[in-house]
Each structure stands twice: as C-alpha cells, then as structure tokens.
What we know:
Layout: E1 4-17, E2 20-33, E3 37-41, H1 48-55, E4 64-72, E5 75-76, H2 82-88, E6 93-96, H3 100-103, H4 110-121, H5 126-139, H6 145-148, H7 158-169, E7 176-180, H8 188-205, E8 208-213, H9 216-219, E9 225-230, E10 233-239, H10 240-245, H11 250-257, E11 307-308, E12 316-317, H12 323-329
Parallel strand pairs: 3-8, 3-9, 6-7, 7-8
Antiparallel strand pairs: 1-2, 1-4, 4-5, 9-10, 10-12, 11-12
Helix pairs in contact: 4-5, 5-7, 7-8
Amino acid sequence: MSEHLLEVKDLSVSFATEDGTVRAVDDVSFGLERGKVLGIVGESGSGKSVTAMTLMGLTRGVNARFSGEILYKGTDLLKVSDNDLQSYRGQELGMIFQDPMTSLNPVYRIGEQIVEAIQAHEKVGKAEARARTIELLHQVGIPNPESRVDDFPHQFSGGMRQRAMIAMALSCNPAILIADEPTTALDVTIQAQIVELISRLKDEFQSSVIFITHDLGVIAEIADEILVMYAGRVVEQGTKRDIFYEPQMPYTWGLLGSIPRLDRPRADRLHTIKGMPPSLINPPEGCKFRPRCPHAFEKCAEEPALESRVEDPGHLDRCWLTVDYKRSHRDETISPGTEAA
C-alpha cells in the first residue's frame, strides 16, 4: 500500500472581514505520498495558495477560522502550538514562495539569508552553514556560488532569485517541499528550467512536492496526481493521465482549452472561460461553476458531491453531467491533441 506522508481531511479555512466571512478553503481533502508530486491548479482566488499557507501555519490570526485535520506523520498540524510549529517549518516542510523579490529581504545578502535559515533549525556554526549555503547554490545552478553568495537579491535575475529561494527551502532537507507558483512571471525557458530543477532536486533530496500553479501546461511536466480547485473547493481529482485524457469537469475542460499548443493550428484568440470567479463571501447556490458553465442544467442548482463517476475509483469530480455526455461534448472546449507530454 502507498504511504501517505501528509493527509488533509475536510480542511476548511475562513476569514472574518467587514463585508462578511470569506470561505477561502471549503472541505478540501487529499493525501501526499512519499516521493510523489501533487499538483494543485485553478484560477486566482480558487484557494490554492491559502491551502498551502495553512499547511505551513501561515494563515493563523485572530480573524481566521479552521476546521478539519492536517496530519503530518500522524500529528495534526492545526493543533500544534505556534512555537512547536516552528520546528516543523524548514526541517519537515519547506516552501518556495510565489514572488522571490518580496520574499527575500532586499537589504541582506543572499548567503546571509540562507545561513540564517540553516542556523534557525540546526546547531551548526556560521562557517559550516556558509559552506552548506555555497553547496546549495551550486546544486540549484547558481554560477560561481563562492562569490555570488555575497550578492544582494537585486543583483540576481528573476530566475536566479527563484533558484535562491529553492536553495533556502531545501536548506534543512525537508520531507515536503511546497512550491507556490514558482514559475509565475518567468519566461517559458526559465519556467522549464525551474520545473526540471525541482523535479531533479526532489529525487536528490528524497522529498515529496506540492506544486501549485494556474498553468496546466506546467503541471503536465511534473505532477503525479492533480487537484483542480474552484471557489475554494476541489472540483476534480485524479492522476495526470485522468486529468489530461479523461477530464470530467467542464471547468477542467476550460483550463485545458486555454493552453496554447504548438501541435495544432494557431487560433486568432486563445480559449477563455467566460465570466468571473464567484465571490467567496456570497458563492452561488448549487454547483459553484454553474453561472459560468455552458453545460449547466436544472440539476446543477444542487451541489454535487466529490465522488467517482467513472470506472477509476481514484478519479473524482463534482459534476452532474453523465459520463457519456461528457465524452461527447468536452471536445467542444478542448481542441484535439491536449494530451500531456
């Protein structure tokens, strides 16, 4: 049997605001196996980053409310105190944040920040921590790490800053690496390099990875299993093959259809999903995607459960449409040739 290093059960996260309660994450469950990559995809505001930050304990506050469980090696991280949670960050769970320019302190040298992260979790001297920092920078592909370790963040390019953030996240060899949109704002060549780097380092450090992105084209290169999130909920879940070859949720069709491809005729415009994501304060009744779904019908006024509607019991979705209807209509949204590479 596969071993789940991390199990998230019925996780809900809400925030009290002046306008009302924001249900940022709503009844989310998943497991992460050792050595595997879990991809979480969806539009901005779908709950991806809040889920990741909650795993790290970074959403705690007076206005935040939580329910469910986050079980890491049997320990519920939602019940761990703030002081004890510090020992899990870095050593057990590392995180690569979305924007390295705002995550790195601009007035401290790159090396100083990685050394500080190492010494915060391990009893090592500064010289040893610096030597390890140089080795980490070398492992993530920073040229001349012996000299560049003393550079400031503004002296690094965007791709190099992201590599430095990866080095910092891996500095204490965490069991789980959470990458929150690590390729955003990078050009496609650098994106490919970062994805390849994370995949290689996962094997070298024997880590599991949670890879968060809005781009299914990126997730196709690295993920073993994929969660598709919408309006704070998981709307489809399955292996990479499930999501790319047999997608069951019209929202997933829209995400797949918006991927530009080189192996089909160039369209005048990329496909888009009509409408806007719903308010998380006043979400629509029934299926949350119903106001934007061209296939919605009367039954969609009632929200479907996340369950398997196909032969594969691990492929789950939230959609009332029949499997036969989905197979005959999804190509209207997904152009031919959308299989994963």
